[in-house]
Structure prediction request, 370 residues.
Amino acid sequence: MTASHTSEIEFALHPTSARVPAEERERLMKDPGFGRIFTDNMVTIRWSADRGWHDARLEAYGPFSLDPATSVFHYAQEIFEGLKAYRQASGPIVAFRPDANAARFNRSAARLAMPALPEAAFLEAIELLVSQDRDWVPFDEGHSLYLRPFMIATYPGLGVKPSSSYLFAVIASPAGSYFEEDLRPVSVWLADDYARAAPGGTGAAKTGGNYAASLAGQLQATEHGCEQVVWLDAVERRWVEEMGGMNIFFVYGSGSQARIMTPALTGTLLPGIIRDSLLTLAPELGIPASEGKINVDDWRSGCASGELTEVFACGTAAAITPIGTVSGSAGGWTIGDGTAGPVTLRLREELLGIQFGHVADQHNWIHKII
Prediction:
């Protein structure tokens, strides 16, 4: 056994002795999809009210054993994050703004009445797993290693109260495209029967309950021939908030007059890290960026008049994805000519260029792991 201690928590290192053979790993990574296959190891840390954070380990990937009364099963006290490790063109393996993920993880923890994890320990857990399972980081351009840190309540009992024990873990999965073709515009359905989040709720936290609440709306989108659902506000059901689990940007004008706008954070939207990055990058490329509001009627009329030229969604899993058509109970319309527009493509090129090392990182967003 060896140990790592770069944060205030000491990690015991017990990597698996039964690694997936190289030939089988290479076969799996040729077409990894998203979230279907997992690396050899994982990281776990436990928390209890009397001991705080303890028993930090890198160990073989495998199942957890939990009592049927464990509170996460009954009251959904759970949070997670999503980020990626990239193999850059010049050789290093890096992560993109993992410190922002660590900070958001703790904001989610506070909203779900869970203990904060020291940010240095969050980063060390990621570094240990990626370093140990580096062979799982894809070489193919555009592919990456998706990292899923999460925390669950582990106290066995049915009383409705915060758990007195928790388990933090990080697992990793080699990832190709989130959508079948990242640059093919997706079709979206306006959800007016369901709401993802309400004022005062958990919309700004990255918790599984938000995603469970979104599934009926996603099924409705699929039933209407659409690939994704767009969420409207819970009060008036007319203000645009998010697409599925991604933030949305609207492009007004074209050429040198183009500008972008994304719905402002109100407490019901997830504060996306890619969203925040684009608000910084776009002005540097000569594209003014703002936060604001847009309702469904203005979205439709803006597309009809040509004022609104492109719409795209963004998030860690799919980076930047163009939206081509909109449908809803009151009919539908096409955005621009239905294809990915030049502003969408330019921002996507810049973002991926930084992540994969083709474009200089001016903001110290790249965190070198190996």
Notes: Helices lie at 22-30, 71-75, 98-111, 119-132, 208-223, 273-284, 296-305, 342-355.
